[in-house]
Amino acid sequence: MSQHSTTDQPTWTATVLGYPRIGPDRETKKALEALWAGRADLAATEASLAAVRAATVRRLNALGLPAHDASIPSAFSAYDQVLDTAVAVGAVPDRFTDLVAADGRVDLEAYSTIARGRGALAPLEMTKWFDTNYHYLVPEIGPGTSFRFADDRGVREFSEALADGFLTRPVVVGPVTFLLLAKAADDAPEGFAPISRLEDLLAAYEGLLAAYAAAGATWVQLDEPGLVSDSATAGVDGLTDLVRGAYERLAAVPGRPRLLVATPYGDAQEHLGALSAVEGIALDLVEGSVPTDPAVLAGKTVVGGVVDGHNVWRGDLEQARETLRRLQGSARNVVPGTSTSLLHVPHDVSRESALPERLRSWLAFADQKVAEVVLLGRALAEPGDAGVTAELAASAAARADRLGAPGVVRPQVRDRLAALTPDAFRRSDYAVRRAAQEEALGLPLLPTTTIGSFPQTPEIRRARSAWSRGELAQEGYEAFLRAEVDRVVQLQEELGLDVLVHGEPERNDMVQYFAEQLDGFAVTEHGWVQSYGSRGVRPPVLWGDVTRPAPVTVPWSTYTASRTAKPVKGMLTGPVTILAWSFVRDDQPLGDTANQVALALRDEVADLEAAGIGIVQVDEPALRELLPLRTADQAAYLDWSVAAFRLATAGAADATQVHTHLCYSEFGEVIEAIDGLDADVTSIEAARSRMEVLEDIARAGFARGIGPGVYDIHSPRVPSVEEVAGLLRSAVGSVPARQVWVNPDCGLKTRGYAETTESLRNLVEAARTVRAELPVGTPVAG
């Protein structure tokens, strides 16, 4: 039971569950990449990261979170919070043992190797963090994994802030979620479940809490989003009892800090009663709801997550205040907060000077969301204050202005959608299409290709930057891009790839590029959000009905086709991914917005086809990402997401081969939906997971083309010919060779040319090797 009385708890007025950790100008990214490139040593890198942490704490204090009551979260990570937890509890796979110091600490170079790999050391697998575009590193847990409180980096970061005058609240992935998100180590027996190691893991958490207490922490936040996800908890019997036992044990740690258990990204009502031993609970009241049993909150500090941490629109603060008031009769202390960590939104909208002032007034980035929770704290404490009333009214006026602004509703778009018939979503039978495509394309068995992008070199980035600043004229910029496309085409022909791409040198990002050319979107200058590690993206803001004023990709696709006799793929980003990687309007169903984007893409496919492009790839790497965490909500999502893809592609002729690409997904959960997309060829991430997906594909009887990735592009490692050939042999052992394509896991944008060239050369050689091993008479690729 709790070791703290309800009377000795400080009263927070507002808090957030986390804050962007990359720095407003991506200082974290720059520091890490300088270390990796050898431009900075460990000491300099640590100093740069410490400066980001210090600036973050000071900023949160300046925005209104007090310095001395633990309402400021200490939620920093150099790369990934799940990796941080694995390192803290000693769950480092045996292959990295030599990198761990005798005292259990893991320095940044070793930490980076676990995350990214090096030489023969394969990194941890990477996958999506719940229903977000953030990627986490998957712990590998087996019966022999030795847990202990090993690395005290988080404690040192807490002490660092305390020495600077700030009593923060450390944030750690909770023990139940850590194991629910882990995978069984390769040497674990069949059927082993990492959650079976919970009791052993808790000993490490006991040591962690004791260390935080010794350092002076008064609160520790343990994030347990696994409790809101049916996929994470599938097959786990007695989960509520496991949660209860875990937190009763942690609550018994002598002298420990108070515990705030957060359940973001959904509704954890069925498990809240198991948290009776902790002092605080943080509820997601954007995706979840006020508990129906108020007794589960009795005597606790409850953070009411009424401000959306996962989107960028100003909140309905009047409604949020009413929700918080509903909680006040049940809890000891109700604190306005965010629904999730703010790591999913950019830092500060006030920096976006290029956005129209009217649009900017509708938005709330991280700093503005902190201001919202602070305002709500004042609204609860001072309901009659005139200043609070005026600020709440201004927020309501901004929301009303957004809903009535020109362009939010375009009648011509609505009329076109209303006129669609079922035929708009259907192509011919696959057998008919396959025959037409075989005749048109003439590809060999195991055709080789890439996913689309080639390395975005410093020269490309400098040219784009100079062009955007007006320092390079349009004619000069296009000449530079043509030369880059020529280089990429020549390289692919020299390597012997069968289906070529243009490398996408003109694209800053696969979603932003389209957003810049479609009406209804706006793009930011500084709106960076962490995707994984040092990788940041700038999600566009989708604020109105979507239209396509002119062709987007046709000019560069046709230029590329003119430079080679080989087939060239036209490259589009799919409607679901455009939604998933944008900040999307919240005033209509997502399916309606997806269909608007799909119509724009349908027109683009038609124009590519008319220009002679015989292969069109419509990427949907985020299909699994938006899948609702609760099983009951998934069928409706899959219906509209699959329909949107088919609306975008079903106008293509039989001889036009439609590809799609998906990455970092638990494919078994959505294999029927992937089949339902009816793409002629589907490429998927598979290298880092060593082809685990093949079992799902074979079991589903997937009959169309499939390209399980054989080269992990999220690591600087160069796979050998034999490594790639081994993966290919696994593929053709599970799927008929006629269906198999050979490709990397994802685009090559983040890689360098030296490693890319060597890796693709090995990929092509491996394909030739395995092709020669196939029986004579094996049907050619479809």
Helices and strands in order, then pairings?
Layout: H1 27-36, H2 42-62, E1 73-74, H3 81-88, H4 108-116, E2 126-128, E3 135-137, E4 140-141, H5 153-163, E5 169-173, H6 175-180, E6 183-184, H7 198-215, E7 219-223, H8 230-233, H9 239-251, E8 258-263, H10 269-272, E9 280-284, E10 301-307, H11 317-328, E11 333-338, H12 357-360, H13 366-381, H14 386-404, H15 411-418, H16 430-441, H17 458-468, H18 474-495, H19 512-515, E12 519-522, E13 529-532, E14 535-537, E15 541-547, H20 554-561, E16 569-573, H21 575-580, E17 583-584, H22 590-610, E18 615-619, H23 634-649, E19 657-662, H24 667-676, E20 681-684, H25 693-700, E21 705-708, H26 721-734, H27 753-773
Parallel strand pairs: 1-5, 4-6, 5-7, 7-8, 8-9, 9-10, 10-11, 15-17, 16-18, 18-19, 19-20, 20-21
Antiparallel strand pairs: 2-3, 12-15, 13-14
Helix pairs in contact: 1-2, 5-7, 7-9, 11-13, 13-14, 17-18, 22-23, 24-25, 26-27
